Predict the 3D structure of the following.
Amino acid sequence: MSNEMSKPGGSGRGEPFRLELTGEFLLLLTLTWFLWGGETLAALALAAAVHELGHAAVLLGQGQLPRALRMDLAGLCLRCPPAATEGRELLRTLAGPAAGLLLALALRGRAEPLLRLWGETSLALSGMNLLPASCLDGGRLLRSLAILALGPVPAERISSALDWVSILLFLLLGLKGRPDWLLWSAWLLVHRVRKR
């Protein structure tokens, strides 16, 4: 989920909802299928869809409509109008991981391997999404809390520092024998560079 600034003179109402599909997303799908197979790809797609639906449900409850669903190197990302308050932003941000956790709990203990995989994937995606990188919900949560406690300027500095800590953490985990963690480090680095 990400927030967009309103266009000058417009509230964002009446604008058509957009689906934005990039070549990066197709590459991400292909890479996921190649490395982990079709069942994992389906489980990730379900978990990501439920996650974004969680964000959308709270957004609709706040009387706003999503502007777009972007599919890129980050996966799925719901584009939203800015929240009126940091408290509303916190609720929006928490809704995605909460929806994923509810799916994981609903599928917990199922005997069917595919349903168990879906639940475990949803739980893993929700957990990863709570890491403190600014492109993830965990980073957005910490940024909102820091804005409430310290103001916007210190919050941005904290957010930037946490991005680099997350990148280095995944890099170190990858060098310790988990090459898939190197992909996470590279993914976070791409987001950090794009943010500038």
